[in-house]
């Protein structure tokens, strides 16, 4: 086993203000990620983490909230009492309300009491508060040249609302200060996709329509909406997963090599992919898209209710979407990208499957068996890793028999390290001011420009909402979508 070559380089001193510091995202993701980076020695002694929300907690009471979050969301093996004590010593708390001036003077005094340093504002609150928060930050003169703001999804519910959010934030922060988080981009596998493509001779010459037959990107969840059905019903699978995560994965898979691994160079290339997506609208949405909702079925071996029963009212909000996308450029002409995501599917998995074309000529006779196509599988969830499927001779004296085997690379095993959570890397990138793994506002706008006409077509054509039993891989219409093209979904092709 080779060991990790990673070295921990401390970031500069910073103040991180977490608006929504008492919320679920802070407890589940942000505080544990910061704790891990602190325990690894990456956070300097005088860095401060300042929780803000409306409830009137003392610092001590908030420290209890932080300790409880670490208890729940950090594995016991990963924490020592000393590391926890060191971490909570950085914690501050101030009550302040985005929609009034209460508390903001105290926040200004606290921030101004520190030495000159990086100042990061993390908006872990509902997006309706992004504009009022930005305005208060400006009103109280909190923006310094070394300030940054981090925006959580969802960034709007369509192109117009996303523009409104981006415009409001842009009145206060320059684009170079805005970090739009898509935590999928912080995953090791996603960065490995770039390493595989651009740090190896092997793949890039084959990475085009001459050698690639089609690409599948799946983000499947086994859970349903549960008690979040009210919120989910205003969103749906396309807004929740496809418009952001899946389209970002599509961009990184399909983009041209940037001239440098730098924020704007990478984001310029991703933007070109989004702009080259063939439009889907009233004319072709029926053929290119499937929307669906889960019905009653099973989950984890137990009966599970359908979406409408959980919601308690009628709705057309999709819990599943599948799309046949095409990129109209020289590299990808004629190569379909099948995208799908859904809740209450068979299992939780996120993967990109690059299917290569068949070999040009088969020299083996029928006794050798079928020559399978090569596949490159990039798994993001649940275990991150990359598998390259190749055909070899079945070992032994029994003549030439061919067999497809996986060349497996499970990162955690290979490097003897646990994969860091995506938020760990992304939060440190915010402090370092590295925007490579964050979305630029024109990318967000271009993604909505592709998605908005699909929503419009669904409404204008009153496109059918298919049903699928909870615990299956989605509706038969999604199978038909890919099989019309003579291909099958990855899990059906084993
Ligand atoms: P949450 O648990 O409801 O937390 C919301 C936080 O905002 C609370 O700390 C709340 O505290 C604070 N808040 C509400 N109104 C405020 C105001 N007027 N001024 C200042 N603070 C205010 O929500 P969440 O799950 O953490 O999600 C936050 C955002 O991140 C949402 O937009 C969500 O969609 C997004 N997100 C969440 C996750 C996740 O895993 N939870 C993942 C991705 C994205 P007070 O009530 O005390 O003010």
Which features would summarize this protein structure in a list?
2 domains; alpha/beta; 494 residues; 9-stranded mixed sheet; binds NADP nicotinamide-adenine-dinucleotide phosphate; Dihydrodipicolinate Reductase, domain 2; globular; Rossmann fold; 6-stranded parallel sheet
In brief, what are we looking at here?
This protein has 494 residues and is an alpha/beta fold.
Written account of the structure:
A hairpin with a 2-residue loop joins strand 9 (297-299) and strand 10. The protein is α/β, with parallel strands linked by helices and 494 residues long. Helix 9 (237-254) crosses helix 10 (263-276), helix 9 crosses helix 15 (441-460) and helix 10 (263-276) runs parallel beside helix 15. It has two domains: 3-152, NAD(P)-binding Rossmann-like Domain (Rossmann fold); 185-483, 2-Layer Sandwich (Dihydrodipicolinate Reductase, domain 2), CATH 3.30.360.10. The strands form three sheets. A nine-stranded mixed β-sheet has the order 16-15-14-13-7-12-11-8-17, sandwiched between helices. The chain has a six-stranded parallel β-sheet with strand order 3-2-1-4-5-6, with helices on both faces. The protein is built from 16 helices and 17 strands. Residues 194-489 form the Glucose-6-phosphate dehydrogenase C-terminal domain. Keywords: Carbohydrate metabolism, Glucose metabolism, NADP, Oxidoreductase. InterPro entries: G6P_DH, G6P_DH_AS, G6P_DH_C, G6P_DH_NAD-bd, NAD(P)-bd_dom_sf. This is Glucose-6-phosphate 1-dehydrogenase. Pathway: Carbohydrate degradation; pentose phosphate pathway; D-ribulose 5-phosphate from D-glucose 6-phosphate (oxidative stage): step 1/3.
């Amino acid at each position: 086993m080779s060991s990790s070559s990673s070295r921990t380089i401390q970031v500069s001193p910073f103040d991180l203000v977490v608006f929504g510091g008492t919320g679920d995202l802070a407890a589940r993701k942000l505080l544990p990620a910061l704790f891990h980076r602190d325990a690894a020695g990456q956070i300097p002694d005088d860095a401060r983490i300042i929780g803000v929300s409306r409830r009137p907690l003392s610092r001590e009471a908030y420290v209890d909230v932080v300790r409880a979050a670490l208890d729940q969301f950090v594995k016991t093996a990963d924490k020592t009492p000393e590391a926890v004590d060191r971490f909570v010593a950085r914690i501050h708390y101030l009550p302040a309300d985005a929609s009034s001036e209460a508390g903001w003077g105290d926040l200004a005094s606290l921030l101004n009491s520190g030495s000159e340093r990086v100042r990061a504002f993390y908006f872990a609150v509902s997006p309706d508060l992004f504009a009022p928060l930005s305005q208060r930050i400006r009103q109280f003169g909190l923006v310094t040249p070394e300030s940054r703001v981090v925006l959580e999804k969802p960034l709007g519910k369509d192109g117009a609302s996303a523009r409104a959010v981006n415009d409001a934030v842009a009145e206060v922060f320059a684009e170079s200060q805005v970090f739009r988080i898509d935590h999928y981009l912080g995953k090791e596998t996603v960065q490995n996709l770039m390493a595989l493509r651009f740090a190896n001779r092997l793949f890039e010459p084959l990475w085009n329509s001459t050698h690639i037959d089609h690409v599948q990107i799946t983000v499947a969840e086994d859970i349903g909406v549960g008690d979040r059905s009210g919120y989910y019903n205003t969103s749906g699978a396309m807004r929740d997963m496809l418009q952001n995560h899946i389209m970002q994965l599509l961009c990184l898979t399909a983009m041209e090599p940037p001239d440098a691994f730098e924020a704007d160079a990478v984001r310029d290339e991703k933007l070109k992919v989004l702009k080259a997506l063939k439009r889907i609208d009233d004319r072709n949405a029926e053929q290119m898209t499937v929307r669906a909702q889960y019905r009653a079925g099973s989950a984890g071996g137990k009966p599970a209710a359908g979406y409408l029963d959980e919601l308690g009212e009628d709705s057309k909000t999709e819990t599943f979407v599948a799309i046949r996308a095409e990129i109209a450029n020289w590299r990808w002409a004629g190569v379909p990208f099948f995208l799908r995501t859904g809740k209450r599917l068979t299992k939780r998995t996120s993967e990109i499957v690059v299917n290569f074309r068949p070999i040009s000529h088969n020299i083996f006779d029928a006794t050798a068996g079928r020559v399978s196509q090569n596949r490159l599988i990039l798994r993001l969830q649940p275990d991150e890793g990359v598998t390259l499927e190749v055909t070899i001779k079945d070992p032994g004296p029994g003549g030439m028999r061919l067999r497809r085997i996986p060349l497996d690379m499970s990162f955690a095993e290979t490097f003897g390290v646990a994969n860091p959570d995506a938020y760990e890397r992304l939060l440190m990138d915010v402090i370092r001011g590295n925007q490579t793994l964050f979305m630029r506002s024109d990318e967000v706008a271009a993604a909505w420009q592709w998605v908005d006409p699909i929503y419009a077509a669904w409404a204008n054509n009153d496109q059918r909402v298919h049903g699928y039993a909870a615990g299956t891989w989605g509706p038969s219409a999604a199978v038909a979508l890919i099989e019309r093209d003579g291909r099958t979904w990855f899990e059906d092709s084993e």
